[in-house]
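Deliverable D5.2: sample structural annotation.
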Amino acid sequence: MRWIIKIILFPISLIMSILTTFLTFLLGIGTAPLYLLMMFCIFGAIASFLQKEVTIGIEALIIGFLVSPYGIPMIGATIIAFLQGINEAIKSI
């Protein structure tokens, strides 16, 4: 009976492994453009503060934070870690 469960869970585990590998690859590739966008937002915020456009500067800093390593990429890394945890739980059965 236990081997039937393993046969059923093997394709799910395989799909989860492929999915986490692909998402890790996308996260690695996608962070470089986000770093550039973050730098543009920070420079834009500095320019806005120098021109006394405080609201635009604050908005640029918020957008810069969202695309920084602590924003969207961190959410992606958390999702990947969650999927890997599920996959490890399936493999331990």
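Annotation notes: Residues 2-50 form the longest helix (49 residues). The helical segments are 2-50, 54-66, 72-91.
The annotation will be released with the project's public dataset once the embargo ends.
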